[in-house]
Structure formats: structure tokens, C-alpha cells
TrEMBL record:
CDD domains in the cross-refs: HisRS-like_core (cd00773), HisRS_anticodon (cd00859)
Gene name per UniProt: hisS
Name of the featured protein: Histidine--tRNA ligase
Any one of the GO BP annotations: histidyl-tRNA aminoacylation
Residues holding L-histidine: E82, G83, T84, R114, Q128, E132, R257, Y261, Y262
Keyword Cell wall biogenesis/degradation set for record: no
GO terms assigned for molecular function: ATP binding; histidine-tRNA ligase activity
Record's subcellular location: Cytoplasm
Catalytic activity: tRNA(His) + L-histidine + ATP = L-histidyl-tRNA(His) + AMP + diphosphate + H(+)
InterPro entries xref list: aa-tRNA-synth_II (IPR006195), aa-tRNA-synth_II/BPL/LPL (IPR045864), Anticodon-bd (IPR004154), Anticodon-bd_dom_sf (IPR036621), His-tRNA-ligase (IPR015807), HisRS-like_core (IPR041715), HisRS/HisZ (IPR004516), HisRS_anticodon (IPR033656)
SUPFAM superfamilies linked: Class II aaRS ABD-related, Class II aaRS and biotin synthetases
PROSITE patterns assigned to the protein according to its UniProt record, in alphabetical order: AA_TRNA_LIGASE_II (PS50862)
Length: 420
């Protein structure tokens, strides 16, 4: 072991587990890639003010959890705690919204950083796959994203997850609700921190997980009862579209999320096998964010699904993804001459698109065959001096154990035919 360990709240992805992780990431991205979303990648850090303004200074993510630092050159930066603000910043910077029809649909995948109190499912470094549809106010987009996330989870075999849906209203109706809620909250018995929150961001108080707080919140005014006609109609349309796609959801009038930029549609995917860190993904509409970071009005909607928690959800449901072995063919040379020849064969097979590996290091037949077994390869190519003198190699089927001499000059084709 080295003197160093992975930093607190982080963990390494190591084979074979890492293959599950990659497969989850791919499965989440797959429905996006075939639904018109283009890939976007942004830096791991940004101007700290992008998040302060975009995500909101009063949020935990910005006020407590951000890895903010000053560079030697005096730039104030932060490791990205979430993806939406960066993606919108990138889209605006590249003027994507001026280059054709809106919405601009983008997907991304990467690492995010929050200085949180680590526990199972809550890390300081985690991975998300996200999607954003920028520049259109269309309930079908909100519905599309929810349906695609549902499809992604289902394609992995997950079943014990629920979709919670709410509307947070817009700049017309939310202020009226905000005031009503503040009036209610000011009358409760709350600590100083929470009292301050009432004045800055009262909706977040609804999200307080403490039982003593939740008890007092019974009877709090609900946004649902304050939505303006436009928001109500919009929300009904989103609900109808999701329903007609056969996707089941639950209305959750108390659902607010930890980021300030959400308007209208908000949703969360929760998994019932994960204990307290049950949110596997979430998102919503953020019609005001572009203007908050200095852009034009660009109503948008998006989500981010957590890869780490999705992997935990699979474990909770006892689902093991069927991941094909990375290697199809494993080459075992017996002797120096065979090493040279088979090393060339390996390169030829790889060029022909066959996933091939080579037994490195001198280990004798037993050691080599152990390597071959461990690789999970379907076929082993074994060759010694006598085989080479005859211009053949032994092609061994690792499942049946059958072995057959195959001419060296027809080997690539013979392997390809068998694997097909
Ligand atoms: P949020 O941006 O907070 O809505 O997060 C979206 C998703 O990212 C969540 O539903 C989680 O699956 C995942 N996530 C957020 N924070 C963490 C964390 N600290 N550790 C692991 N996953 C996280």
C-alpha cells in the first residue's frame, strides 16, 4: 500500500466493479444520444460567481459545499458542484442559441464536487450524466426528459424507483406564494438559521429533513394552490404527456430542490432501497437562469442523474449487469519464437476489430492458461515451436475446452467467423 489514500469522501473505481459503473453511465446516456441531444463537455472548474449567481448564494451547495479557491493569478474559481450553470454558460458563449432552431439539446457526463459530510451515497466527488434542453418553453420537452430518464433506469432493470413531480410556479405566482409561506413560517418555533432561511429562501424550509421541523410544516400553504393559470395549464400538459407515455409519477406538492434556479416543472427520481440518500436524479425547468448569468431570456429544462447512486440502486435491487468480457481472444505463446509470432497476430486481430489480449511475462503453460482464464476470453490461441513449424496455432474454445489447429495465415478470418 502507498502512504497515500483516496481523499475523504471519495473512492476509486477499480475493475471489475468499474465496468458496472461505465455501463451505468452509458445506459443513462443512451436514450439521450438517440433523441437529438448533442454531447457537451465543459471544464471541471468555472468562475466562482457563475455558481454563486446561477445556483444561488443562499443554497447549501454554494454557501457550504463549494470547493472555491483563488489561483496564483488571482482568479476566483470553483470546482463545479453541478452541471447546468456550466452547460448554459458554454451554450451562451458559443452562441448555440443563435445558430438554428431552438431548443438546443445537450447532454454531458462528468465529475462534480461538493464538500459534503460523506456517507453512503453522498460523496465529495461524484459523477452525473445530465441533459439540458435550452431555449424553448414547451411542456413536451419537460415530458421528454422525464420519459428519457425513466427509460434509462428501466433499461438497467431498475424497478423500485419513483418519480416525484411538482410545479414551482413562475415569476408571477411564486412571489405571492412566497409571501404567504413566509407569513406561515414566521409563526413557527424554529432555530436562528432556519429563521434566516425564511427571509432568504423560504421554499427551502419545506425541504428541511428534521422531524421537528416537518411536524410544524403540516398545514403550510402549498404552491399548488397558488399557481397562476398559465403555470397550471403548463403543468397539466406535462402531466398528461407523461401519463400518455405510460410513465407513472406521483404528485408531490412539497417537492422543492436545493438549487435556486428552478421554475415551474421540478421532479426528482427517488429509489426506495437507498435509505436517506434516496434521490438518484432530479431536475426541472429553469426559465430565469440564462438572465441570471447575463444571457438573454432562454427558458430551459434539464436533469442530472447520479451515476454513483444509480449503481447503489442496482445493488439494492440485486441487479448485476450482464457485461460481456472485455477480451474475446487471449494469446498464449510457448517459447520465444512463438512470442514474436503471436505478438504480431495479436496486433493483426486488434486491427481487425477483435478484442484481444496477450499473455505477458514468462510463466510457463500453467501460468499462461491462468491468465487466459482470468481474462474471460472466449478463445485462446496457443502456439509452440512445433505448431509454428507446421504453420498453425491451436485455437482453444475456452467454454467447451475443444482445441483445433488453425492455419496461421487464415487465423484472423477463422477467429472472426467463430466470434460472429
Ligand atoms: P442535484 O444536483 O443535487 O439535484 O443532484 C442530482 C443527482 O446527483 C442526485 O440525485 C444524486 O444522484 C447525485 N448527487 C448529488 N450530490 C451527490 C453526492 N454528494 N454524492 C453522490 N451523488 C450525488
Amino acid at each position: 500500500m502507498s502512504t497515500f489514500k483516496a481523499p475523504k469522501g471519495t473512492y476509486d473505481l477499480i475493475p471489475p466493479f468499474s465496468a458496472q459503473y461505465l455501463a451505468v453511465r452509458d445506459a443513462i446516456a443512451a436514450p439521450l444520444r438517440t433523441s437529438g441531444y448533442g454531447y457537451v463537455e465543459t471544464p471541471g472548474f468555472e468562475d466562482v460567481n457563475l455558481f454563486a449567481r446561477g445556483v444561488g448564494e443562499s443554497t447549501d451547495i454554494v454557501s457550504k459545499e463549494m470547493y472555491a479557491f483563488e489561483t496564483k493569478g488571482g482568479d476566483k474559481l470553483a470546482l463545479r458542484p453541478e452541471g447546468t450553470a456550466s452547460v448554459l454558460r458554454a451554450a451562451l458563449e458559443a452562441s448555440l442559441h443563435k445558430q438554428g432552431n431552438l431548443p438546443v439539446k445537450l447532454w454531458y457526463s462528468g465529475s462534480y464536487y461538493r464538500y459534503e459530510r460523506p456517507q453512503k451515497g453522498r460523496y465529495r466527488h461524484f459523477s452525473q450524466v445530465g441533459a439540458e434542453a435550452i431555449g424553448a418553453e414547451d411542456p413536451a420537452l419537460d415530458a421528454e426528459l422525464i420519459i428519457l430518464a425513466d427509460q434509462a433506469y428501466r433499461s438497467l432493470g431498475l424497478r423500485n424507483f419513483r418519480i416525484l413531480l411538482n410545479s414551482l410556479g413562475d415569476k408571477e405566482c411564486r412571489p405571492v406564494y412566497r409571501e404567504a409561506l413566509q407569513g406561515f413560517l414566521r409563526g413557527l418555533d424554529l432555530d436562528d438559521d432556519t429563521r434566516r432561511r425564511i427571509e432568504i429562501n423560504p421554499l427551502r424550509v419545506l425541504d428541511d429533513k428534521r422531524e421537528a421541523v416537518q411536524k410544524q410544516l403540516v398545514g403550510a400553504p402549498l404552491l399548488r394552490d397558488y399557481l397562476c393559470d398559465a403555470c397550471k395549464a403548463y403543468h397539466e400538459e406535462v402531466r398528461a404527456l407523461i401519463t400518455s407515455a405510460g410513465v407513472v409519477f406521483e404528485d408531490d406538492a412539497k417537492l422543492v430542490r436545493g438549487l435556486d434556479y428552478y421554475t415551474r416543472t421540478t421532479f426528482e427520481f427517488v429509489h426506495d432501497g437507498l435509505g436517506s440518500q434516496s434521490a438518484v436524479g432530479g431536475g426541472g425547468r429553469y426559465d430565469g437562469l440564462s438572465e441570471m448569468i447575463g444571457g438573454p431570456a432562454l427558458p430551459s429544462v434539464g436533469w442530472a442523474l447520479g451515476v454513483d447512486r444509480t449503481v447503489l440502486a442496482l445493488e439494492a435491487e440485486g441487479i448485476e449487469l450482464d457485461i460481456p468480457a472485455a477480451t474475446s481472444v487471449f494469446a498464449v505463446p510457448l517459447g520465444d519464437e512463438a512470442r514474436r509470432v503471436l505478438f504480431g497476430v495479436v496486433t493483426e486481430l486488434r486491427k481487425a476489430g477483435v478484442a484481444t489480449d496477450f499473455s505477458f511475462g514468462a510463466k510457463g503453460l500453467k501460468g499462461h492458461m491462468k491468465n487466459a482464464n482470468r481474462s474471460g476470453a472466449r478463445y485462446a490461441i496457443v502456439a509452440g515451436e512445433r505448431d509454428l513449424a507446421e504453420g498453425v496455432v491451436q485455437l482453444k474454445d475456452m467454454e467447451s475446452g475443444e482445441q483445433q489447429a488453425v492455419a496461421l495465415d487464415g487465423l484472423v478470418e477463422a477467429v472472426r467467423t467463430r466470434l460472429a
